[in-house]
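Task: complex structure prediction.
Instruction: return structure tokens for all chains below.
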Amino acid sequence: MCEVIVITSGKGGVGKTTTTANLGSGLAALGKKVVMIDTDIGLRNLDVVLGLENRIVYNLVDVVEGVCRIKQALIRDKRYPGLYLLPSAQTRDKTAVNEQQMLKLIEQLKNQFDYILLDCPAGIEQGFKNAIVGASRAIIVTTPEVSAIRDADRIIGLLESHEMNQIDLLLNRVRFDLVKKGDMMSPNDVVEILGIPLIGVIPDDEQVVISTNQGEPLVETVSLAGKAYRNISQRINGEKIPIELPNYVSFWTKVTGIFQKPTS
Amino acid sequence: MNTFNLFKKKSSGDIAKDRLKILLISDRINCSPQTLQMIKQELIHSISKYMSIDEEHVEIILKKNSKRGKNKKPSLYANIPILNIHE
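Output:
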């Protein structure tokens, strides 16, 4: 059984591509056969995040236009044997592919993979429509900011009208020090507002910047964000892993905090 | 939030949450605050024909149901205090 999951957000820059790369790696690390499709035609990036930018010969548009076979365009990941990337075209635009062509492509890939992850472009135009058409499940990536949550809500509304079977929330870039001070919305606040189930919380972690610079997945690192992505991958795979949020207050602050003057 | 902050102004996280709640209600049903204001005025106008009401304290709120889903439509709540009923 193949599950087709679209990773989307509405707003740009909230971490869709990083999430796609790491969930793909995380699922492949569990021994699954996974293909990640970059549907952001004209603004291709998933290849760079994965460190596979030098291996691209053919792309999504070539496959759709019949220039090459799917197999020729699929790039095998350097780290995981079951992980493949179908890169997007850099020199074309979103109108180069339509929804019927995407559906056909996904149907062809379905019998070869356990998971198909679609990295959706920002916005709600043709690129978004292409990305969601073949998916039965969606992961909404958002950050705890008013603008990102507003866009996420719009996307959820659109997905519901498209009869998406399952919609989960992935809250990215949470700073628990700010949540504790009341200066950032907590995961509970965001879940209450958006009204969809939470699949995981990624803390704001400098390792994300470091790993992205190197073109390596986070799931191999011993970072908080890496662990969060590993857990989410397991949840997608059907395992029951409770969502653990880091303690807002460390033991040491609890001890010394009694003697500290309150800061505003 | 500790006790020292109790009397201080609202935290920015709470402000964000409150702003979002109001924003999303109008986003979700495509209804602007101006439209709500017009509904309120017309309600006051029609009800005033039959009873005298406390116009200052009339509240019109759009509420969404906390669980999302296809049949979970938002509903309009009107709280209209009656001063007395015309005979």
